[in-house]
Amino acid sequence: MKGPEGKRSKTKNLGGASAQVESSSLQRTPASEDGGEALGSYWLMKSEPESRLEKGVDVKFSIEDLQAQPRQTTCWDGVRNYQARNFLRAMRLDEEAFFYHSNCRAPGIAGLVKIVKEAYPDHTQFEKNNPHYDSSSKEDNPKWSMRSLILS
Fold first, then answer.
1. Residue 68 has what DSSP assignment?
2. Half-sphere exposure of 86 toward its Cβ, with a 13 Å CA cutoff?
3. pLDDT in tens, 36-74
4. Of 25, 42, 79, 99, which has the fewest beta carbons less than 10 angstroms from its beta carbon?
5. Which is nearest to 122 in space by CA: 92, 97, 145, 93?
6. Are 102 and 63 in contact (CB under 8 A)?
7. Mind listing the pLDDT tens digit for each residue in 18-40?
8. Alpha-carbon span 25 to 63, nearest angstrom
9. CA 29/CA 65 separation, integer angstroms
10. DSSP 74-138
11. How far apart (Å, rounded) are the C-alpha atoms in residues 35 and 98?
């Protein structure tokens, strides 16, 4: 697996996620003799499931937090790494990603999610009290994007 790390945060009132984004390119040969399916490319959405304060805000977000969201859907906001942002923008509807628990006692893939909304401006870049506020980003030309995900 390869790709950049881009930090993400939970948005209290919107149920955002705390994570990072990476590109993964797992490959399997096309359908085997036993009828197995070929495995395509998956994105890797890294999340921190244990409490960590960033500018006084707990940015913890786990697969259990996603399961507790309405319709098991969340926005993936707070990415502040340009390459990770570009990966977010490159994702397409219905593509899948591994939900990966990072920076914790038991790191690893915790579940599978699906992209359910095209990239759109990340509102947290404009919220002065948000740990991911970016004073250099302008509403008429936002720097940062986010996606919406659903548990698969």
1. H
2. 4
3. 666 678 999 999 999 999 999 999 999 999 999 999 999
4. 25
5. 145
6. no
7. 445 554 433 333 444 555 666 67
8. 22
9. 35
10. EEE-----HHHHHHHHH--TT-EEEEEE-SSSS-EEEEEEEEEEEEEE-GGGG-TTSTT--TT-B
11. 24
Backbone angles phi, psi at 76, to 5 degrees: -105, 90
Measured distance between the N- and C-terminal CA atoms of the chain, rounded to whole angstroms: 21
Written as six digits, the tokens of 81 are: 């790494």
Report the C-alpha gap between 85 and 142 in whole angstroms: 12
Q: Is the pTM of this model over 0.85?
A: no
Place of tokens 């909304």: 117
The burial class, CB within 10 Å (0-12 / 13-18 / 19+), for 126 is: middle
